[in-house]
Design a protein that fits this description.
- With about 150 residues, the protein is mainly alpha-helical.
- It contains 5 helices and 4 strands.
- It has 2 domains: about 40 residues, no CATH class; about 100 residues, no CATH class.
- The two termini are about 35 Å apart.
């Protein structure tokens, strides 16, 4: 639990009211984190950052992860993949199962045919196919997209 306490560093910036959040950026929220910034109220912004890339063990892994993520974000909405119908609770349960059990986790997925499955081979094939297709749609050559995925 985090209870933000007002802290002032004497700069009299608008985001001084969020100093507690700023000091926690590198420690509590490594992957998804709230960010509050701005020197004045009119220049202020609040956003949620998604930052999984620094958590990868090698540069190659970081590039592969970013490629897969970018490809999925390109392809899933364009193809109107039925996984958008996955309930929030199921997605949350999938996340925690993956955290606990890694690649051996029991995960529920909605395949491209709209059928629910727990077959991880089908899930990974679907995800990787969409990631590669998304990269091609974004302008990557076929061989380059395949290499990164």
């Amino acid at each position: 639990t985090l209870i933000p306490m007002p802290e002032s560093d004497g700069t009299d910036r608008f985001d001084d009211a969020f100093a507690t959040f700023r000091t926690k950026h590198g420690s509590y929220w490594r992957w998804v984190r709230p960010v509050f910034e701005g020197a004045s109220r009119s220049a202020a912004n609040a956003r949620i950052e998604f930052r999984p890339i620094p958590g990868q063990p090698t540069v190659r892994d970081s590039i592969a992860f970013q490629s897969a993520f970018a490809g999925l974000m390109q392809a899933l909405p364009q193809r109107e993949h039925p996984v958008i119908g996955l309930e929030w609770e199921t997605a949350r349960d999938n996340f925690y199962a993956a955290v606990a059990d890694g690649l051996d986790a029991d995960i529920e997925w909605i395949g491209p045919d709209g059928e629910r499955t727990t077959d991880t081979d089908a899930l990974f094939a679907d995800i990787l196919d969409h990631a590669e297709a998304g990269l091609r749609t974004a302008g990557c050559a076929d061989d380059e997209a395949a290499a990164w995925i």
